[in-house]
Amino acid sequence: xxxxxxxxxxxxxxxxxxxxxxxxxxxxxxxxxxxxxxxxxxxxxxxxxxxxxxxxxxxxxxxxxxxxxxxxxxxxxxxxxxxxxxxxxxxxxxxxxxxxxxxxxxxxxxxxxxxxxxxxxxxxxxxxxxxxxxxxxxxxxxxxxxxxxxxxxxxxxxxxxxxxxxxxxxxxxxxxxxxxxxxxxxxxxxxxxxxxxxxxxxxxxxxxxxxxxxxxxxxxxxxxxxxxxxxxxxxxxxxxxxxxxxxxxxxxxxxxxxxxxxxxxxxxxxxxxxxxxxxxxxxxxxxxxxxxxxxxxxxxxxxxx
Amino acid sequence: xxxxxxxxxxxxxxxxxxxxxxxxxxxxxxxxxxxxxxxxxxxxxxxxxxxxxxxxxxxxxxxxxxxxxxxxxxxxxxxxxxxxxxxxxxxxxxxxxxxxxxxxxxxxxxxxxxxxxxxxxxxxxxxxxxxxxxxxxxxxxxxxxxxxxxxxxxxxxxxxxxxxxxxxxxxxxxxxxxxxxxxxxxxxxxxxxxxxxxxxxxxxxxxxxxxxxxxxxxxxxxxxxxxxxxxxxxxxxxxxxxxxxxxxxxxxxxxxxxxxxxxxxxxxxxxxxxxxxxxxxxxxxxxxxxxxxxxxxxxxxxxxx
Lengths: 305, 305
What we know:
The structure is a homodimer of 305-residue chains. The first copy, chain A, is globular. Chain A has helices spanning 9-27, 36-46, 53-63, 69-90, 107-110, 113-132, 140-154, 159-174, 181-206, 211-238, 241-244, 250-253, 259-263, 265-282, 291-302; strands at 100-101, 104-105. Chain A contains 15 helices and 2 strands. By secondary structure, chain A is an all-alpha fold. Chain A has one domain: Farnesyl Diphosphate Synthase (Orthogonal Bundle). Chain A has a two-stranded antiparallel ribbon.
């Protein structure tokens, strides 16, 4: 089956989450190895949870270009591995020092700190290994385009740079100088936006789409990435820990600049809605084929966790 | 200039170290960025030191196949970035907890722990970004072959897996069960051997060499990688901290299994010599063109630091 045929979006998300779980299970290194503990930690970090938004972006984007599901699932798994690595490292005591993630102990709590550092390291490597493998696409030019795009999104100029800016922002907040809207926007576009944009574009790369279609999907991702972060701040303000599976109110309590803090709750909600509308409008040229991406744009601001 | 024309090996090493330093300087992200501290830590970790053995392996290997120096320098820089990332993470308090590296404070000492984790993360990404860039080779198939080989060498089945086995070995040593020769050999082949093998093979990949030549270079690297580690253990036993630029006698004091501990000093020296001789014999088919690789095999067991 090569289209997301579920009758409703929640079912589509479950379908994709189940498929990418199976794919990750297959791709991650086995426990039958002298480094079994490392491999177990990699599996713990990647399996058994998460909304799999990045996987869904890859797969729904790839479906627009009739990419065989076997290929899009591999790219989706790579995006989820990269995301999982970033969470494992962000949760470390020297970073955000979180004990809970998706309702379970974080990797350094379930294992130990050294294993958490190494599991994150190896998950990053594995993401590149999966993209570089001929099973992802027979054409080397497509595989290297994916690899280059993932590296751009996730390095010092992308995700890791965003996390570094976030850490510096905490120190500024502690000194009474929280970030401005434009600064927090830049932080978000790198820390979470870059990998979301990669995920949205990956299917188009796999499908040999032209630069114009790729740019549309990147712009769509730019909108939903920011909407997602604003919604996160709203959930952090309004949500409860049981639904989120992590601590709430932490950012505000730390004096960190949040979109809610900068805009107020009402304006933050309006901004998130406007971004979702913009994201949906960008997809017009794809017609009904982009139905799942349309619903995904709605989901990022209506989700409860 | 596309051959290592220096009159003696020490001058060749200096020449390559200077060239790769310039290349790294050019490739690493600039300080003119909101993530300036991260980028500064990446530069601190990569620049200004090290024997650059991996870079020399890449370049001397590439010279066998008349690879333009601009290309081999990029692959050499990628190997050095990957190596630098591994050192930054291995030095962390939760891993080997080292304060000194190449005679300077380690990255988490010179900056902070969070920055050290992120700098290592971003250096890994950057290594893949460099290999994936068309400037490394115009043929996508060559670039993806390099990328895949680096991922294989450095992930859970390679370098990171080796470090995980090393951490487990320390716990076993503390419990009075140090590793056997075969176990420490496996550990070494993954922890340091895999990236050394990548470095030796990278030039052949860049030069479009056949599988036979690639296998010869991998086998050569297998010999010198093990010889290098045995020599390290000998230096750790006999050396002094000033020449090494790091603490000595630490492994033995920690009860860790070392080649010297397992074989005794005399047999360890004989084993290292035999491996160097084997490595040199493997290169016979390349004739005098492999002079630098011959000298490098000699260097790994005669070096003082």
